[in-house]
């Protein structure tokens, strides 16, 4: 920690100088998460909190779609993403043309879009969801069939919990799709008594082997509330590091996969972002209103 302290102090000074706050996703490394972030959370919390920020600049320590969402909900603020290469395999898997084709094949079926998508894809959708509110969003529509894109696994995991039929798109998270049911069985053999929490972006057979599935914030809440003796968080690597810091009595088994996009948010990149005012997120004016409407419809439900 002593090694990163000068960088953390420099970032704190830059935040004051530029009237900036740092919104950080739960997958940030501990030095970002505990060192410089002002607000931390899952995708849903970051979207909600973006609306309450008073500072004129938001640095989004996360990935591109999160920065776009913050900008959509805060059009008058400057939103910076430290590294423009911070993409997401889910966001890259789908275009508005894919949604148009799905609508043509399934006329009248509402399109529920995971927030891990571009503003253009959100603009072509009826409503957004996150992994933390997908069940409530689907149920709020009062229909028996939805098009749920672009994460095929999230869609199937949520369908299993709602009884609503889902039409999917073949997208997947490059981090969570790599976990297998055999991994979970191995963890149970190696660490008797372990409680296994999986992110719903994992394939359904992995979720079936877990004790609980939820968003990153829901996994964290589970640990805080239940204080399991041993826990395995089947998700991105920094999650266990960050939750472990606040739960010293819980033993964390650490099978994990790194998200290369999230990991581009180093302290050095965040510092440069504040120093140079880069990379500023801008939106296509034609997409702004429809994309914002899909997010706001979601936030009205939960
Ligand atoms: P949540 O934090 O919303 O669960 O999302 C996980 C994720 O992979 C974000 O990119
Ligand atoms: Fe995208 Fe998966 Fe990385 Fe999240 S963890 S940003 S869903 S690739």
Automatic annotation (TrEMBL):
GO terms for cellular component: cytosol. The keyword Cell division does not apply. GO terms for biological process: 'de novo' NAD+ biosynthetic process from L-aspartate. Its EC number is 2.5.1.72. Pathway: Cofactor biosynthesis; NAD(+) biosynthesis; quinolinate from iminoaspartate: step 1/1. Keywords: 4Fe-4S, Iron, Iron-sulfur, Metal-binding, Pyridine nucleotide biosynthesis, Transferase. Signal peptide: none annotated. InterPro entries: NadA, NadA_sf. This is Quinolinate synthase.
